[in-house]
Here is the input.
Amino acid sequence: MDNMNVKVSREATALIEALLLENPHPTNSDWKALVMNNPDYASEIVDFSILFERNVHLQSEAYDEPLDQDLFDELSEHIFDMLGTVESSASEAQAKLSKIVGPKSRVIARDIGLREHVEILDQIISGETKAPFVLVKRLASNLGLEIASLVQAFALNFSRRPAQAFKSDGKPKLEQEPIDWEVAVRAAELDQEDTNYLLGLERKIE
Here is the structure.
């Protein structure tokens, strides 16, 4: 998170990234709970949460929850100085993700451990599928991004989906939140070996 110009310790970074990986669209209540459960890092979490939520609001009309004025008051003297850097970080991540197309998609899918399953990589990039931490970590490293910036880009991509999508039977469907990894993997209807391998990534630690 250093490239965001937000002074966040390694410990606070781990807490924030864990929250975003579990829920790329945290509510004000989620942020407050994280602060209350980790008072030693309250200031750092508040700093990041304000910038994160402000950036989502500025970039996406699909985010409906009102901003928490109490959180803004905590950092009113700093927010405008820091905001531009956060937007730049998220924009950089989105820009890099947008270039993962064609042959490059297959190369990156292999590099991060998705084998030949480019379609699942596409679902991760669009924010439609919650990826295991190990995949997010590998992709962030591959692209030279911070994990939190990458997760934020996923959330923004998800919020900017087309207004309408369709199921295989032609009936309209638009997911209201990213689907779980296991659901996405099983929906791909892969052979048993690949299915087991991909599901096992949720338990992999690097």
Q: What stands out?
A: Residues 3 and 123 are 26 Å apart (CA to CA). The chain is about 60% helix and 0% strand.
